[in-house]
Design the sequence.
């Protein structure tokens, strides 16, 4: 049974939940805790590293994409107390997101031959653009369909972001967060290389809906058992969550025992 979903996005980045909707939805799903991990943003509605809302523990988190040699990976920070350095990097990343969003929108509109209801603004992500495409073009029915062939990495309308290095991201989150974890290692082109970086962090995301809702899933060479083995071999915290961008929480996540260990580390690091 899932007790904690530690990977949730809100409309502060590219999710659809308002922050006020997260606790009641989590409670309805039977969860003890959730973590709000918006892309490249801390949430202005969370004024402490951990808060209690409507009987649910809400962990203030963040997800950063970083450059790791020949691939890009995501790093999750939990129990955020923003430092000046992290705030400055967030501001830079949001300016980059606006410019990148503008360019993707222009490319999509030129390719489709019509405008889409999306504006380049802070927090804009590709799922937002995908939803705008679905809303305005009958040829597209789902977010994965928009990503596959249109705005996915290497596709005609894709634009890369200017992101920090793995070392810089690790340093920024290490100073600002109680726990830092490698996100969804099996989603990357080279999961084994991504997992080699996990021991330099506090944890690794083991529970994740690989293959569900259009997620990339494993490449077949590494498995969830491999991820769990890395966590066990290096005494890393197990993290996990649904990576919710839509209206569903608790699809996967931590058991009660895993969450208790995570919460203990979170409290110790605060």
Sequence:
């Amino acid at each position: 049974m899932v007790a904690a979903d530690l990977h949730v996005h809100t409309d502060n980045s590219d999710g659809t939940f308002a922050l006020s909707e997260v606790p009641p939805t989590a409670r309805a799903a039977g969860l003890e805790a959730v973590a709000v991990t918006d892309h490249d943003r801390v949430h202005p509605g969370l004024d402490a590293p951990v808060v209690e809302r409507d009987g649910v523990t809400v962990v203030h988190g963040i997800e950063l994409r970083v450059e790791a040699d020949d691939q890009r990976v995501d790093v999750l920070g939990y129990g955020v107390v923003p430092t000046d350095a992290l705030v400055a990097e967030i501001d830079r990343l949001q300016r980059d997101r606006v410019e990148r969003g503008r360019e993707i929108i222009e490319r999509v509109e030129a390719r489709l031959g019509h405008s889409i209801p999306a504006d380049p603004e802070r927090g804009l992500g590709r799922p937002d653009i995908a939803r705008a495409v679905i809303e305005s073009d009958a040829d597209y029915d789902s977010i994965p369909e928009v990503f596959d062939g249109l705005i996915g990495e290497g596709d005609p309308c894709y634009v890369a972001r200017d992101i920090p290095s793995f070392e810089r991201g690790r340093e920024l989150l290490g100073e600002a967060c109680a726990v830092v974890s490698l996100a969804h290692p099996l989603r990357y082109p080279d999961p084994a290389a991504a997992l080699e970086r996990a021991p330099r962090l506090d944890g690794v995301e083991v529970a994740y809906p690989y293959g569900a809702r259009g997620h990339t899933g494993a490449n077949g060479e590494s498995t969830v058992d491999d991820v769990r083995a890395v966590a066990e071999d290096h005494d890393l915290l197990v993290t996990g969550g649904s990576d919710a961008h839509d209206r569903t929480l608790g699809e996967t996540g931590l058991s009660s025992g895993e969450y208790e260990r995570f919460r203990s580390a979170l409290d110790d690091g605060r």
